[in-house]
């Protein structure tokens, strides 16, 4: 009976390993088009991050004539949330164009950045868990396009890479044909990332 139980446990362990490997392979295949085999990336440099709508509007990217520019500005604006939530929402309203930040979105941003402002900074070059997500200056952020980013006319899903995550995170945008501008639709990149080293008891 002991031998049978041992063989049974070995068989169950082997099955679990196969299932786990299959799941990991499926996940890797799903995210592979992002950052690998992509069409191209665009990198933006800011000498300072905007603290108000007025400061955001004078930046060259504020023309919003590409989805890449709008994505970069969204992350630049979100970095201000830990300093001034109200001014940040005003900047996001500008980036939403015909739309505005809904009550649900305000709550979502508060929950994800209210005590974890480092999440927004983590998308800028040089920001890692080891340095508390303090980016290099000038501030540089790279926006990633994959082969499916512009599959639907006047819509785009672009990606940004956090220094605390393994895979790029998405941002959804929409083009207004009458002006040729791209506006923010949905911030999808604020899921949890690795905590800063100073907050990690296992670091």
Question: What does this protein look like?
Answer:
With 203 residues, the protein is α+β, with helices and mostly antiparallel strands. The chain has one domain (41-199). 36% of the residues lie in helices and 16% in strands. A five-stranded antiparallel beta sheet has the order 1-2-3-4-5. Helix 3 (67-78) packs antiparallel against helix 4 (85-96). Mean pLDDT is 87; it is low at 13-37.
In a few lines, what is going on in this structure?
This protein has 203 residues and is α+β, with helices and mostly antiparallel strands. The chain has one domain. The chain is 36% helix and 16% strand.
Element-by-element helix/strand order? HEHHHHHEEEE
Which strand order spans the largest sheet, edge to edge or round the barrel? 1-2-3-4-5
The tally of structural domains comes to 1
Q: Tally of extended strands?
A: 5
Instruction: Note the beta-strand portion.
Output: 15-25%
List keywords for this structure.
about 200 residues; 5 strands; globular
Q: How are the elements arranged and paired?
A:
Blueprint: H1 2-31, E1 41-46, H2 53-57, H3 67-78, H4 85-96, H5 103-113, H6 118-121, E2 139-144, E3 155-160, E4 169-176, E5 181-187
Antiparallel strand pairs: 1-2, 2-3, 3-4, 4-5
Helix pairs in contact: 3-4
């Amino acid at each position: 009976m002991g031998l049978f139980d041992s063989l049974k446990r070995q068989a169950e362990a082997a099955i679990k390993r196969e299932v786990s490997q299959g799941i990991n392979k499926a996940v890797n295949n799903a995210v592979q088009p992002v950052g690998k085999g992509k069409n191209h990336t665009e990198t933006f440099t800011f000498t300072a991050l905007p603290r108000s709508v007025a400061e955001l509007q004078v930046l060259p990217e504020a023309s919003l004539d590409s989805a890449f520019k709008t994505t970069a500005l969204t992350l630049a604006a979100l970095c201000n949330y830990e300093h001034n939530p109200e001014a940040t929402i005003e900047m996001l309203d500008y980036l939403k164009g015909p739309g505005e930040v809904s009550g649900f979105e305000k709550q979502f941003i508060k929950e994800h950045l209210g005590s974890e402002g480092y999440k927004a900074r983590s998308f800028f070059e040089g920001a890692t868990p080891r340095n508390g997500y303090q980016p290099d200056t000038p501030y540089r952020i790279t926006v990633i396009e994959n082969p499916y980013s512009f599959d639907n006319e006047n819509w785009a899903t672009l990606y940004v890479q956090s220094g605390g995550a393994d895979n790029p995170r998405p941002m959804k945008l929409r083009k207004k044909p009458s002006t040729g501008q791209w506006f923010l639709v949905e911030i999808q990149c604020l899921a949890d990332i690795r905590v800063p080293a100073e907050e990690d008891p296992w670091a």
